[in-house]
Amino acid sequence: MDTKLIKQLRQSTGAGWLACQQALAESKQDASKAIEILRKKGKKIVAIKKSRQTKEGKIGFYLHNDSKIAALVMVNCETDFVAKNKEFINLTHDLAMQIVATNPQYLDIKDVPKEIIEKEKEIYRQDLKKKPTDIQEKIITGKLKKFYSEICLLEQPFIKDSQQTITDLLTVYISRFKENIKITKFIRWEI
Q: Closest Cα partner for 83 from 187, 173, 185?
């Protein structure tokens, strides 16, 4: 078994040594398939952990080097032990940096007012009037997904790894710490 490959998997997924070893064996040493296997297992862990209360946490902050843009983000977890962990603190900082860089307007899709969604759909329909209705709906669904990835923090590609969304990033940390982690609030200021 290739220990370098296991270390890479551990870093990218947050999974334990044994889980990485098993995923590599299951994927016949294919790292990308192993990551997929571990992410699926991570999503199962997230589903179990989501119902647990998050009463601890940290407030992450980031001040851009020109001192004209800043962000605060409240990230909650279950225990004080995790809240004090250096990796968790780095996560809060990375999330604040994400907010400065991408300027999300909402945390999640469910937070976007229906009026805004309907207005976007109407704009898309105007552009697509000449296409058949069933094709319009497929295109509108794709355009809305892109729209959400621009305005909703949890749907955005992570600035340090565009292959994963912020939701995927949280899934990695939930798997790593074996407890629920969620972003509660954020705010961004710009001069």
A: 173
68 and 135 assigned to the same domain: no
Q: Are 99 and 69 in contact, with CB atoms under 8 Å apart?
A: no
Do 62 and 143 belong to one domain? no
Average pLDDT value over all residues in the chain: 86
Q: What is the CA radius of gyration of the chain?
A: 19
Question: Is the distance from CB of 147 to CB of 121 less than 8 angstroms?
Answer: no
Q: What is the pLDDT of residues 98-145, one digit of tens each?
A: 999 999 999 999 999 999 999 998 888 888 877 777 788 888 889 999
Dihedral in degrees, nearest 10, Cα atoms 64, 165, 7, 97: 10
Whose tokens are 């040594």? That residue is: 17
The alpha carbon of 130 is separated from its chain's Cα centroid by a whole number of angstroms, namely: 36
Q: Kind of pairing, strands 157-158 and 181-190?
A: unpaired
- Return the H-helix or E-strand segment holding 71: strand 69-77
> Is residue 145 domain-shared with residue 167, that is, in the same domain?
no
Contacts of residue 12, defined as CB under 8 A and 6 or more positions apart, other chains included, come to: 35, 172
Q: Which CATH number belongs to the domain containing residue 12 in this structure? A: 1.10.8.10
Measured CA to CA, the distance from residue 56 to residue 138 in angstroms comes to: 41
DSSP state of 153: G
Range of the domain at 26: 3-49
